Amino acid sequence: METVKHHEEAHVHLPPRSVWPIVLAMGVGLLPIALVAFRTGHAIVAELLAVTGGAVSLVSLMGWAHSVVMDKAEDVVTGHLSMQQQDLKMFLKYFLLSEAAIFGGLFVHYYSTRYHIQAWPPAGTPHIHTHDPAIATLILMFSSFTCELGLKAFEKGKKFHAKTLLLVTALLGLIFLSYQGLEWGLLITQYGFTVETNIFGTMFYMMTGFHGLHVSIGVIFLLLAYGRLELGQMNEERHFSLIAASWYWHFVDVIWVLLFFSLYLI
């Protein structure tokens, strides 16, 4: 037993070579180019770039996730499961840290711009009501609670409760996105408030839209984790997909609370 344990500790888990990270970088790289094209008046080009970038990013994420699943299955056979799970969690922490850095840059830019403009929000900005966004915030916060309950339920062997709570969490995420879409529609159609109205409009739609994209990805992660539960591909010792979906969802919730206070209350 000690020999096996020593061998596992000495083993360094190396993931298989994959082209998906490069493909993902290319897909994500198209998104800011699409934004620049839109701002320079090339709407059709911007739409094509945005759709292509989003599709490439989604496919690459799915392909990357599939390669990770296959790698995990191999490590179960070779007996290096615990080391591999630790490496995956460390990767997830670095990934969330990089995501936090991106949002941090947006927050720094927002507050820097706000500091240098005497009247905030600038002229042309309608009164943005906080009632519906506050409800959406409570829904998203509650979804974080149901997500954590689902993870804990699975770790205790209560798979039915875990699957139910995952579906509830995904549904709450979709409700949140519906609230956001409704707010955008009202601001654009009733008040003519768009990304071109002023600097606040640009940053408001950019920050809430970027977060909405992350919520959409989070919902996909939750549904993928649910699908793997249905297929019986996870157990109490091997369920990184569920952990990753849960951590990512908590991260998205925290970012929205900061956005809500920054854009709506302060």
From TrEMBL:
The alphabetical list of record keywords is: Cell membrane, Membrane, Transmembrane, Transmembrane helix
The answer to keyword Kinase applying to this record is no
What residue intervals traverse the membrane?
Answer: 20-38, 44-70, 91-113, 133-151, 163-182, 202-226, 247-265
Q: Which SUPFAM superfamilies match?
A: Cytochrome c oxidase subunit III-like (SSF81452)
Q: Which biological process, per GO, is one annotated for this protein?
A: aerobic electron transport chain
Q: Which residues form the signal peptide?
A: none
Q: Taxonomically, which superkingdom?
A: Bacteria
A cellular component term (GO) from this record? plasma membrane
Compartment(s) of residence = Cell membrane
What the entry lists under InterPro entries is as follows:
Cyt_c/ubiquinol_Oxase_su3 (IPR024791), Cyt_c_oxidase-like_su3 (IPR000298), Cyt_c_oxidase_su3-like_sf (IPR035973), Cyt_c_oxidase_su3_a-hlx (IPR013833)
Q: Which Pfam families does this chain map to?
A: COX3
Q: What membrane topology does the annotation report for this chain? A: Multi-pass membrane protein
Task: Tell me where it mainly resides.
Answer: membrane
Name the Gene Ontology molecular function terms of this record.
Answer: cytochrome-c oxidase activity
Q: Where is the Heme-copper oxidase subunit III family profile domain?
A: 8-266
UniProt similarity note: Belongs to the cytochrome c oxidase subunit 3 family.
Name of the protein described by the UniProt record? Heme-copper oxidase subunit III family profile domain-containing protein
Q: Which organism is it from?
A: Candidatus Glassbacteria bacterium RIFCSPLOWO2_12_FULL_58_11
